[in-house]
Amino acid sequence: GDESAEERKAREEEAASRKLAADLAAEVAKRRNFAIISHPDAGKTTLTEKLLLYGGAIHEAGAVKARRASRHATSDWMAMEQQRGISITSTAMVFETKGHSITLLDTPGHADFGEDTYRTLAAADNAVMLVDAGKGLEPQTRKLFEVCRMRKLPVFTFMNKLDRPAKEPLELLDEIEKEFALQTYPVNWPIGSGDRFVGVYHRPRKEVHLFQRDASHGSREIISTVLAGDDPTLKDIIEPDLYEQLQEELELLEELTPPLDMDRVRSGDLSPVFFGSAMNNFGVELFLESFLGYAVPPKAYESSRGEISPEYPHFTGFVFKLQANMDPRHRDKVAFVRVCSGQFEKGMKVQLARTGKTIALTRPQKLFAQERSTMETGFAGDVIGLNNPNAFAIGDTIFSGPRLAYPAIPCFSPELFMYIKNPNPSKYKQFQKGISELLGEGAVQVLYSMDPGQTNPILAAVGQLQFEVVQHRMQSEYNVDTTLEPIGYTVARWVVGGWDALEKVGRLYNCATVKDMWGRPVLLFRNDWNVSQLLNDNPEIGELAPYSLPP
Ligand code: GDP
Fold first, then answer.
1. Is the distance from the beta carbon of residue 40 to the nearest atom of ligand 1 less than 6 Å?
2. Tens-binned pLDDT, residue by residue, of the chain (551 aa)
């Protein structure tokens, strides 16, 4: 037929946009991104190492160990920061396996636990909850789980250290179900634990994977012996009481556990559970294989323009973490961006939603194991590190198409409170500047006393290290020596009804009223018990929230 130039152009444009959509869909389908949540010492470093080993990113486990050794003492951390910058691996690791590109977002633990740990979960599509099977649920796991719940992340549970005496598996599942109101689906089931740990029964394939103590301490991949679940030799391998217990428990599981409903897994209401021993490389490969099958690919994000799918043709993303001084040679600051849609390209120009300014993304970095290398492209689910000093704040949206913004990342309930003081009046200006810049960067939260005589800001943190970082940076970047004075509160709650709600109830006992950086009322309590007591005595105050979104 006769096609006009316009028609031809329209046809070509449509073909191009179809091709782009198909390309994006293919890239997105390959990607899986997750964060590990756990309490210190549950074995996160060990599991990370083993996942990277199976993922082929490192051939000899141990590469991640340098981090472990260096992060126990805060002083080491500071020294490390000064000498060579914080390892970029502390934010994201990427590895490719079985046709998937996997991004493991690191959630700092131990002394470096801070708000970054929570914010990282804003960039994650899936969470792996790592539990020490000898101990069950622990405080840090509980806190991080709350964030996963709030974000409706699918949660995959790995019960670790089965080579050591463990709690009964049914008891472990029960803890999760009761405390987290999260149903569980054991994908595999342990046979004994500690010295009597025989292996796991893998339910989907009805196989027994036999545990082999690993003399190399798991620095190499181990191929474990696999037998069919009805193999008659199992009776010779497994001691009679354990064998009988296994049969009973498997029957019980068939009766009690709901089917593995993937919709409920994806919505974060049902957690597939795995048992193993990261240190012995046991159960890790089995976990990785199932995880890749169950985990969700990069998801759609809510935005001011509605839901943005990962295949949306324009590049969009948001800043979830800022890290200063990574490279001491030039005091740079890296903004870590979660790509939400479209294709990121080296050198591209984007707009910053907060200011409307155009920014050229000049020095993008790909995050791979222990190296920094320049990244050429990126798709939804990827994390990119940008060197655009001072351009970004936590939660900033960047986009290349029509204007849009992603919701702010919530402030998380701080648990440690200190007045920060500047003993030297001649440093007043630097002090104010430093506090407001570190605040803007999200290094720490700042609250203000309602007492007009108290002009010192209150630093509010979730981890001790945040204070030390603030003091250190106030000294090195703003040349102000500060002092800290602890305040005896441990719980903060935002008054959802605002000042009006507070006025209604009148005088409050056993708490202090302060305001956040946006002037909203926050109550500080000595403990959780005082929170419930206040709610009991003053129901008309309405909701007290542990998290809050910037207005
Ligand atoms: P993280 O603090 O969660 O990163 O924990 P690490 O990976 O550093 O492990 C804490 C300790 O537990 C180390 O001494 C590990 O060797 C040990 N560990 C990790 N996984 C296992 C395991 O499967 N079995 C045993 N027995 N120990 C383990």
1. yes
2. 678 899 999 999 999 989 988 999 999 999 999 999 999 999 998 898 888 777 665 444 344 444 444 333 333 334 433 333 333 335 777 878 888 888 888 877 666 678 888 899 999 999 999 999 999 999 999 989 999 999 999 999 999 999 999 999 999 999 999 999 999 999 999 999 999 999 999 999 999 999 987 666 555 555 678 888 888 888 888 999 999 999 999 999 999 888 899 999 999 999 999 999 999 989 998 999 999 999 999 999 999 999 999 999 999 999 998 876 544 455 567 788 999 999 998 788 999 999 999 998 865 554 443 344 445 678 999 988 887 767 888 899 999 999 999 999 988 889 999 999 999 999 999 999 999 888 877 888 999 999 888 889 999 999 888 898 889 889 888 999 999 999 999 999 999 999 999 999 988 999 999 999 999 999 999 999 999 999 999 999 999 999 888 88
| Best residue among 38, 39, 46, 106 to mutate for probing ligand 1, ranked by most atoms within 8 Å of CB | 46
Nearest ligand 1 atom to the CA of 48 is: 7
Taking the alpha carbons of 426, 427, 430, 435 in that order, is the dihedral positive or negative?
A: negative
Distance CA 49, CA 318 (A): 28
Q: Is the CB of 209 under 6 A from ligand 1?
A: no
| Cα 289 to Cα 291: distance, rounded to the nearest angstrom | 5
Atom of ligand 1 nearest to the CA of 164: 26
CB 142 within 8 A of CB 37: no
List the residue whose alpha carbon is closest to atom 19 of ligand 1: 43
CA distance 156 to 293: 12
Pairing status of strand 377-378 against strand 344-345:
antiparallel
Return the structure tokens found at 356: 């409307």
Candidate from 279, 280, 281 with most ligand 1 atoms within 8 A of CB, to mutate? 279
Atom of ligand 1 nearest to the CA of 110: 2
Q: What is the pTM of this model?
A: 0.88
Do residues 388 and 362 make contact, with C-beta atoms less than 8 angstroms apart?
yes
Please write down the HEC assignment for all residues of 369-425.
CCEEEECCEECCCCEEEECCCCCCCCCCEEECCCCCCCCCCCEECCCEEEEEECCCH
